[in-house]
Known about the structure:
mainly beta, Immunoglobulin-like, 10% helix, globular
Amino acid sequence: MKAPSIALLLGTLxxxxxxxxTSAESVRVSHxxxxxxxxxxxxxxxxxxxxxxTRSIALTGARSTTYANVMLHRSSGAGGTxxxxxxxxxxxxxxxxxxxxPGGYHLMLTQPTHPVTPGDHVLLTLTFAxxxxxxxxxxxxxxxxxxxxxxxxxxxxTPAPAMPVAHDDAxxxx
Length: 174
C-alpha cells in the first residue's frame, strides 16, 4: 500500500507545475488588424492584448508565413519628429491591457510572400517571454484605416503637415 500513497503524494506535488498556464493561455487578443500600404512598403500590425493573469506578461515578437520579417517596434514623438525603433518586449500589465496601436507599440511586417489586399486574413504567431506562442488572425485593412473597423473618412482638401520619421538604426537587426 506504500507504493500507491507515494505515487499519490508525488502526483499532488507535481500537479501545480503541470497546470501552470503559459503566457499565451492568459492573453486575449481583440481588434487585430494590419494597415496595408501600397507596393512593397511595410505593413503595420495592431491589436489589443488583455492579460488575465495575476502577474505581468511580455510580448517579445511575432512571426508569419505571409511576411518574411515581423518586428516589434515602438513609435514616439519628441521635438516634432516621430521616431520608430525596434524593441525587445512590450509589457502587458497584471490583469490589464496593452495596445499595439498607431503612434505606439506595433508590429512592422516586411517582405510579403504574396500580395496582401484589404479584407485578407493574415495569421501571425505572437511570441511571449516565456516562449509560449499564440496564433492570431489579423484582418488586412487599407492604408487609410484608423482601426479594425471602418476606414477613415476621405481627407479634406487641406493636407495635414508632414512629420519626418527617423529610424533608430542602432536598434534594427537584420
